[in-house]
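User: Just a sanity check before I run the rest of the batch. Below are the structure tokens for the first item. I only need the designed sequence back.
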């Protein structure tokens, strides 16, 4: 009898352990999210960064002319970020036509064609694009 009670207890324990595992939250990739302070700091990454990437590749059509490493139609994102850091300039201001080109003024007319899109964006969207581009080094 004692033996049976013991195995019931073990069984119950096993179930509660499994249940506990099932209840764990998962991120969008299906990985378990640990509830400790370490991940809390990780998820506090600037939310504008993800938004900026989305706009850069989507609505902003920026990827058509700007790639991370290589010059295509426009300068690479890295080159732009480098110069904007050196000069402490604002990309958000540039794409709202509030400041002059400092990377490649000779090609400014081509970039200007995209201002129709960026000037129709909200200030927060322009800031998100800035945060995304400035994250390259
Ligand atoms: C039709 C091609 C084209 C598209 C689309 C485009 N760009 Fe550009 N961009 C250029 C060219 C060419 C330059 C180089 C001329 C210049 O420096 O102004 C440039 C330069 C820039 C610069 C540097 C400006 C400076 O100070 O000289 C920034 C910042 C920039 N683009 C951001 C963006 C963002 C953000 C988007 C999307 C919302 C975008 N571009 C979409 C062609 C494009």
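Assistant: Here's the designed sequence for the first item:
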């Amino acid at each position: 009898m004692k033996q049976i009670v013991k195995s019931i207890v073990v069984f119950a324990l096993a179930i509660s352990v499994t249940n506990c595992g099932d209840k764990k939250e998962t991120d969008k990739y299906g990985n378990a999210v640990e509830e400790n302070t370490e991940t809390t700091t990780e998820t506090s990454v600037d939310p504008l960064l993800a938004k900026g990437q989305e706009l850069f590749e989507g609505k902003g059509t920026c990827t058509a002319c700007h790639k991370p490493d290589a010059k295509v139609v426009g300068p690479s994102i890295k080159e732009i970020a480098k110069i904007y850091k050196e000069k402490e300039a604002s990309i958000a201001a540039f794409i709202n036509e509030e400041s002059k080109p400092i990377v490649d003024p000779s090609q400014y007319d081509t970039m200007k064609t995209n201002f129709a899109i960026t000037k129709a964006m909200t200030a927060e969207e322009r800031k998100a694009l800035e945060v995304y581009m400035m994250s390259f080094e």
